[in-house]
User: Which sequence fits this backbone?
């Protein structure tokens, strides 16, 4: 439409400026229409004639059309050529890429197969050697104990040992060969005849225990003793002399030739009655056996003989004739020395020969699903042997001698060595070459590459066709528009005089508002020039959509998706050549966070990172970002600075010290192990690219190799240390801070970087006056720090600078744990006061409260089958007040702290059952209770709030509706192991301990904890605390009942209590019980209950939930992060192992610890976690606990045996240190 208006304007102006007497003006007007038209074409004879105008316009339009058409056609041809080239290139690339991917997968899969075969070969080789060595050591030990003089040794249990060894190694036979000298030969031959009865006993053992291991040929079973004598045997079945085989067809025996040493076969498993080889000289068995034996005796190591697949071996011949069922695969003898003693001056007195089939090493090397075969060529140095196997899945097929693999796969050759068999200096050494087979390769190579290439080319062709169709439609539309424009121009020129046409054109001229809309935002040219107007409009149209939508590009063919087109300006980025980057990561954070609520996790992160931000502001360091628990900062940008390395060194040191301060302070509110968190820091200096990455949630970011290097330095660093790259260290030295730099002892291997030489940043202890009063403990930039006792370098276990200056009582972990528990209990007391203030109950007088006492008799008798919890009270909910308007008195808070301190003092310094563990249990109880929805949390919900609150009360069985119950649960967790003796109740009962007698041998430790804790609470020092906890007899009774039930629930070994708990569970949560089932889908609203049975059922469920809550919390470390589990499991082991060493435990706990933990997971922990889920009130915590329990069990199964050994080692180390 724009082009049409321009044409009309030009034509109208020309017609209106053509007076008959002025040819010059006419000529100029004509040139305005088209510069290529000659001056004579502008001469008109009649002012009102439209014929002259049409004639003048027709030629320029044709010229322009031809020129533009030519340009368009050339462009189309160029586009077609480019598309064709791109199609070909894309097809070739697709084909190459797919083929490359197939080749990569093929090579990778083959590498995996080779690795599996190699692993199997090494494992089985080691297994065979270990087994034979075990038998050798056993024979040496037996001979030593029996004072046997070699070679005259007879082992009664050799048959048992040999057959068991054969089952493990897969050997066909195991034979003992004493070394007999020439002088001992006569005595030896007499010895063998005199002790021939071992053979009869061996036969009876074989027939009775392992009859399947051999089968005698029928013709041999009927052989007469005379025929045996004809072959050199006597009536005992033993050849009475050392003999050799003459290899004739009759298999006759002849007396062995004279030699200095003989190696007769003696005892063998299985025993021989059809193939007596006793006294066969092994050195003469085959021609290549003598060098192998000499090699074994010279180098004193096991050796292996040449492989025999063709039947040259005497044993193989007889086996293949049906006397023993064996395959046709190659077999060798593996010779293991036997010594006269196990000392360094031992002498070889015999050797064992195991007759092994080579297929044993390859069977089952591949998964059963790996059906396509691979070739395995076994090479031996003895006689340059080569034998080929076909390995397919778990089966192995021997193809024959020589190298029979497919030569097309020579380039894929990979070698596996039998390093465990013999040694590198052995006479016979073996290796295996592995090649793919044709069938195996066909699995990975297909026609997909060609198919995909054709598809890509087809897509390009289709795109070209569609482009042609689109172009045809555009050309068709353009022709119609031009025809309409020409007709309109001719009509206007022929119908209207010049003055009328001028007015018409003026009306058709766009208004100023339209021109403003059509012009670009930055008006750089006048709209009188049509070409400028068109280019500006085109530019606006091509960019406007992208700029207006900020990120969504136009779909038109002329749109260009660039950063400038999307955002309206060039990217904001720059290169900073001199910077120092810090990566700081919290060590132990993941395990710590697994035991905390999300709010506690963010409390820690926000507190520490805020402190780091303040230090960064003071040091003029730029904070880049935080990724998880990693803090990233940089010095040297956005404002460059020469001292960036020094500034970052000071900043990182401040962060390290501040981290120690804050974690110790936060332990009082965030719980145990918070002070154990540390910081691992890496610094690197180098250039980075920095800028704003625009888009959704755009932010300032750094890119470059320097970032990667700094990250690697952090990951390879150590807790409490600052690791520097060589670049940063050089800058510090150049800045005169060489005393800050200490080279790391060993280079580190960094991922993607290789071996790096790094340095530690030295930390010095500041004087008290050098600490700046900023509330952050920062040092002035120009402050000098004096070292104490030389260079004190912070490491994983060193205290921070501030800790070394702080008073000892502030650093007491027990004191911090006391503060933590006081903080939790104080908050619960505050809830009790708020609850009581909302609806004041009947208050007991001071004297009445003094008379409130627990019942006489054992605590165990107070355990209730069902705890009676209060029902939902709508008045309390409606009248509830602002919690911030109520506070507990300072006296109550002081008494609470004193009480918790006394409880902490009652805990013994056990490794596991100590105050720290009690705090850990308290933390877990508080976390689980926090996951139960409190009806008071629904105040901001819409609708009838008290009805919603009642529903939540019913959903949680009223547990969290009563703050007193909540307080009692947490307090029970704190006191449940008070005065724990470090051994189980069973040990106390067996020792007849006084407290076991006192509590009638039942739940001894648990009852003792309740009694001691309760006696302290009843002291006069805690009158105000008790008055705050309970105010009448009902609250006292409920408080006492909850504590007794929960603490006694931690005794999971008492059979009677366990049976009662199981019965309650079945009645409350089984499908046959109340019908509630998982998730509490069948709960009834307590507000609509009119019978006591329904209320009893809900209280029963509440009782069960509370008991399982404390049980899960008592072993919460098993259902938390692996590091948490490993830490507490080691402490429990140390406690029990110490009791064993003290004689209080009869059995060494290390012997069954591995299996015991697995059983504990299977039969207690995992079922308990599933019960938490069934209770349906703990939200995501039940799934979290179950997942951690299953993960920890899997980890323990994989690593537990080695971990138990590490527990033993750590106990011995700690014991030595304590001494």
Assistant:
């Amino acid at each position: 439409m724009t082009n049409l208006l321009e044409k009309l304007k030009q034509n109208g102006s020309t017609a209106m400026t053509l007076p008959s007497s002025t040819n010059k003006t006419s000529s100029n007007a004509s040139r305005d229409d088209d510069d290529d038209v000659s001056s004579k074409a502008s001469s008109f004879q009649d002012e009102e004639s439209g014929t002259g105008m049409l004639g003048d316009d027709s030629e320029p339009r044709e010229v322009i059309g031809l020129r533009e058409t030519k340009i368009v056609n050339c462009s189309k041809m160029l586009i077609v050529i480019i598309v064709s080239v791109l199609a070909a290139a894309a097809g070739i690339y697709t084909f190459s890429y797919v083929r490359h991917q197939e080749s990569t997968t093929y090579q990778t899969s083959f590498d995996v197969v080779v690795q599996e075969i190699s692993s199997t070969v090494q494992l089985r080789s080691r297994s065979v050697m270990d087994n034979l060595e075990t038998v050798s050591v056993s024979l040496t030990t037996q001979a030593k104990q029996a004072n046997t003089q070699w070679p005259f040794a007879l082992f009664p249990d050799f048959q048992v040992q040999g057959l068991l060894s054969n089952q493990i190694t897969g050997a066909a036979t195991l034979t003992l060969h004493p070394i007999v000298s020439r002088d001992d030969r006569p005595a030896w031959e007499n010895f063998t005849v005199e002790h021939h009865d071992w053979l009869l006993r061996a036969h009876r053992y074989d027939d009775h225990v392992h009859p399947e291991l051999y089968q005698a040929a029928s013709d041999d079973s009927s052989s007469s003793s005379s025929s045996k004598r004809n072959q050199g045997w006597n009536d005992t079945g033993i050849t009475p002399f050392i003999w050799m085989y003459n290899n004739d067809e009759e298999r006759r025996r002849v007396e062995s030739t004279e030699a200095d040493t003989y190696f007769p076969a003696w005892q063998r498993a299985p025993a021989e009655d059809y193939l007596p080889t006793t006294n066969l000289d092994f050195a003469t068995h085959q021609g290549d056996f003598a060098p192998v034996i000499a090699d074994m005796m010279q180098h004193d190591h096991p050796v292996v003989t040449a492989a025999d697949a063709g039947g040259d071996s005497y044993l193989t011949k007889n086996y293949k004739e049906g006397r023993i069922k064996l395959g046709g695969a190659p077999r060798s003898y593996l010779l293991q020395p036997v010594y006269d003693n196990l000392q360094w001056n031992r002498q070889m007195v015999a050797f064992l020969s195991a007759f092994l089939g080579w297929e044993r090493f390859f069977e089952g090397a591949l998964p059963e699903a790996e059906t396509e075969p691979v070739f395995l060529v076994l090479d031996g140095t003895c006689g340059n042997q080569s034998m080929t196997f076909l390995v397919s899945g778990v089966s192995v097929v021997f193809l024959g001698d020589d190298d029979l693999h497919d030569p097309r796969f020579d380039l894929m050759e990979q070698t596996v060595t039998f390093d465990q068999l013999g040694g590198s200096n052995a006479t016979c050494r073996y290796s295996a070459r592995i090649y793919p087979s044709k069938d195996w390769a066909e699995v990975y190579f297909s026609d997909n590459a060609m198919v995909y290439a054709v598809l890509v080319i087809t897509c390009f062709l289709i795109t070209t066709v569609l482009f042609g169709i689109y172009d045809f439609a555009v050309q068709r539309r353009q022709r119609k528009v031009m025809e309409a424009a020409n007709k309109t121009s001719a009509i206007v020129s022929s119908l209207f005089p010049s003055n009328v046409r001028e007015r018409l054109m003026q009306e058709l001229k766009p208004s100023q508002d339209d021109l403003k809309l059509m012009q670009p935002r930055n008006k750089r040219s006048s709209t009188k020039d049509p070409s400028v107007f068109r280019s500006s409009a085109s530019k606006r149209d091509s960019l406007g959509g992208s700029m207006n939508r900020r990120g969504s590009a136009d779909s038109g063919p002329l749109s260009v998706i660039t950063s400038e087109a999307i955002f309206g300006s060039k990217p904001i980025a720059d290169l900073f050549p001199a910077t120092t980057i810090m990566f700081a990561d919290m060590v132990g954070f993941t395990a710590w966070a697994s035991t905390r609520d999300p709010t506690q996790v963010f409390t820690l992160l926000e507190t520490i990172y805020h402190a780091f931000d303040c230090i960064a502001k003071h040091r003029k360091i730029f904070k880049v970002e935080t990724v998880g628990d990693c803090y990233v900062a940089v010095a040297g940008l956005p404002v460059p600075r020469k001292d960036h390395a020094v500034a970052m060194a000071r900043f990182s040191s401040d962060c390290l010290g501040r981290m120690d301060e804050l974690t110790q302070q936060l332990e009082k509110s965030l719980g145990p192990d918070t002070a154990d968190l540390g910081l691992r820091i890496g610094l690197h200096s180098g250039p980075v690219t920095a800028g704003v990455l625009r888009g959704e949630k755009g932010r300032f970011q750094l890119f470059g190799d320097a970032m990667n290097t700094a990250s690697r330095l952090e990951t390879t660093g150590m807790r409490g240390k600052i690791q520097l790259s060589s670049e940063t260290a050089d800058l510090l030295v150049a800045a005169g801070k060489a005393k800050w730099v200490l080279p790391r002892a060993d280079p580190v291997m960094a991922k993607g970087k290789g071996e790096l030489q790094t340095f530690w940043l030295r930390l010095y202890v500041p004087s008290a006056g050098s600490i700046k009063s900023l509330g952050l403990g920062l040092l002035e930039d120009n402050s000098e720090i004096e070292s104490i006792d030389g260079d004190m370098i912070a490491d994983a276990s060193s205290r921070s600078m501030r800790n070394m200056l702080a008073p000892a009582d502030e650093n007491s972990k027990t004191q911090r744990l006391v503060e933590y528990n006081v903080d939790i209990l104080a908050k619960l007391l505050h809830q009790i006061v708020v609850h009581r203030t909302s609806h004041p109950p009947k208050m007991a007088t001071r004297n009445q409260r003094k008379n409130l006492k627990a019942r006489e008799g054992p605590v165990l008798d107070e355990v209730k089958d069902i705890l009676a919890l209060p029902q939902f009270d709508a008045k309390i909910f409606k009248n509830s007040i602002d919690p911030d308007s109520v506070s507990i008195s300072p006296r109550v808070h002081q008494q609470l702290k004193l009480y918790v301190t006394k409880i902490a003092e009652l805990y013994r310094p056990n490794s596991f059952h100590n105050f720290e563990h009690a705090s850990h249990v308290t933390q877990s109880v508080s976390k689980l209770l926090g996951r139960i929805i409190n009806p008071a949390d629904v105040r901001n919900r819409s609708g009838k709030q008290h009805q919603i609150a009642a529903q939540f009360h019913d959903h949680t069985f009223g547990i969290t509706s009563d703050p007193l119950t909540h307080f009692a649960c947490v307090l029970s967790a704190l006191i449940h192991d008070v005065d724990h003796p470090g051994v189980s109740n069973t040990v106390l009962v067996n020792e007849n301990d006084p407290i076991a007698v006192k509590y009638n041998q039942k739940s001894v430790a648990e009852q003792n904890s309740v009694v001691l804790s309760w006696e302290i609470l009843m002291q006069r020092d805690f009158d105000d605390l008790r008055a705050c906890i309970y105010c009448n007899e009902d609250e006292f009774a409920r408080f006492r009942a909850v504590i007794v039930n929960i603490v006694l629930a931690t005794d999971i070994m008492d059979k009677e209590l366990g049976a009662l708990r199981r019965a309650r569970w079945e009645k409350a949560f089984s499908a046959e019980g109340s019908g509630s089932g998982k998730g509490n889908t069948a709960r009834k609203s307590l507000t609509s209950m009119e019978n006591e049975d329904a209320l009893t059922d809900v209280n029963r469920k509440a009782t069960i939930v509370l008991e399982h809550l404390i049980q899960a919390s008592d072993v919460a470390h098993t259902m938390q992060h692996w590091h948490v589990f490993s830490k507490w499991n080691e402490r429990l082991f140390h406690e029990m192992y110490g009791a064993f060493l003290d004689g209080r435990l009869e059995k060494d706990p290390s012997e069954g610890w591995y299996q015991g933990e697995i059983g504990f997971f299977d039969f207690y922990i995992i079922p308990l976690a599933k019960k938490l889920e069934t209770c349906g009130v703990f939200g995501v915590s039940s799934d979290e606990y179950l997942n951690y329990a299953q993960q920890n069990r899997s980890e323990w199964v994989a690593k537990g045996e080695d971990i138990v050994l590490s527990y033993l080692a750590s106990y011995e180390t700690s014991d030595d240190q304590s001494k």
